[in-house]
Design a protein that fits this description.
Number of domains: 1
Distance between the termini: 37 Å
Structural class: mainly beta
Oligomer: single chain
CATH topology: Methylamine Dehydrogenase, Chain H
Number of helices: 1
CATH architecture: 7 Propeller
CATH class: Mainly Beta
Length: 345
């Protein structure tokens, strides 16, 4: 009887689905949003095997994960072009059930439109979104009720990426085409004083302890380090290319930075220059190991065990799986056209 009971328990355990938060212990999965193909693709992290292909609304964009709920959110920013060329904006955020590998719901954010950056506060369950509507704004979405609770105008045409510091009730947007970082008081729901950034900004991320906000550079080559208590740039760290987008290790001790060289040829932008990922130690703010990763690395995510990163190498139509201890690409996985948002679970 004891042997039968043990076997039965093992059988039940095998049938129990793993939560998104502990998938990495079993090998993990990747989900990537392919903007030009309008698809989601799910892959096995350990083997690169394609698990499922799912159609989305047109041009899925950025992605963020809610590990406790086992869902991810993907913004539908533009229906027919990139941020500086589109004619028809999107006004939806799609909800992805990670266990089922399916779209579970679509949140309509009308009258707001062109949602771009996403930041999720795990404690409150609120989703913060940078939008281009109303001359540029930050909206707050209740993910349980699936509705917009409020908005704050930031007065920039293309608020790009967004980061939140929940302990200070603040949000920050990086703005490519204006010379400042926007700051929002999330408690009073009002804009605060802008932070100067003369060469425009790109990616943005806040450390889990709220000590720093790291901001990428659109045209310059310095990483901007913001103290969110003072809302000031307290350090500029020079690199040889513009620091673009970011991922943090789960404990916030390591920052990983993407770099890409958007050159021009015959007056047209080209994407055939190599891209890189570089590590930065958060405690000392010192840059560390650097590696070539592929062409036009656009977004990146880190596994919960901090051992592996997954990087969109968008111009290659693939994602790169990186061993962070060796700073080495260990696997390249072909995707549909123009991989953009990516999470690992």
């Amino acid at each position: 009887m004891r042997g039968i009971s043990a076997a039965f328990l093992l059988f039940l355990a095998a049938l129990t689905p793993a939560r998104a938060g502990n998938q990495s212990a079993q090998g993990g999965r990747i989900v990537v949003a392919n903007e030009h193909a309008s698809t989601l693709q799910f892959f096995d992290l350990a083997t690169g095997q394609l698990l499922k292909d799912v159609p989305t609304l047109k041009r899925p964009h950025e992605m963020v994960i809610d590990r406790e709920a086992g869902v991810a959110y993907v913004s539908i920013a533009y229906k027919d072009g990139p941020w500086d060329q589109y004619e028809s904006p999107g006004n939806q955020i799609q909800v992805i059930d990670l266990e089922k590998m399916a779209i579970a719901d679509t949140i309509d954010i009308t009258p707001h439109w062109a949602p771009h950056g996403l930041a999720f506060d795990q404690k409150s369950g609120l989703l913060y979104v940078s939008c281009e509507s109303s001359g540029g704004e930050v909206i707050v979405v209740d993910t349980k009720q699936k509705k917009v609770l409020g908005s704050v105008k930031v007065g920039v045409p293309h608020p790009h990426s967004i980061a939140v510091v929940p302990s200070l009730n603040k949000a920050y947007t990086a703005n490519k085409d204006v010379q400042h970082i926007s700051v929002v008081d999330l408690k009073a729901m009002k804009p605060l004083k802008d932070i100067p950034a003369p060469t425009g900004t790109d990616g943005i991320i806040a450390t889990p302890d709220g000590k720093y906000v790291f901001v990428g550079n659109f045209k310059g080559t310095e990483l901007l380090v913001v103290d969110p208590k003072k809302d000031e740039v307290i350090k500029s760290i020079p690199f040889d290319l513009p620091p673009s987008t970011f991922a943090l290790s789960p404990d916030g001790s390591k920052l990983y930075i993407t770099f890409h060289d958007l050159g021009t040829r015959d007056g047209k932008q080209v994407l055939d220059q190599p891209g890189f990922v570089q590590e930065l130690d958060v405690a000392t703010l010192r840059p560390g190991a650097k590696m070539e990763v592929g062409h036009f690395p656009l977004n990146m995510t880190v596994t919960q065990d901090a051992k592996t990163a997954v990087v969109d190498t968008t111009a290659d139509g693939s994602i790169a799986v990186v061993d962070l201890a060796q700073m080495k690409v260990i696997r390249r996985i072909k995707t549909d056209e123009w991989p953009h948002g990516v999470v690992v679970f």
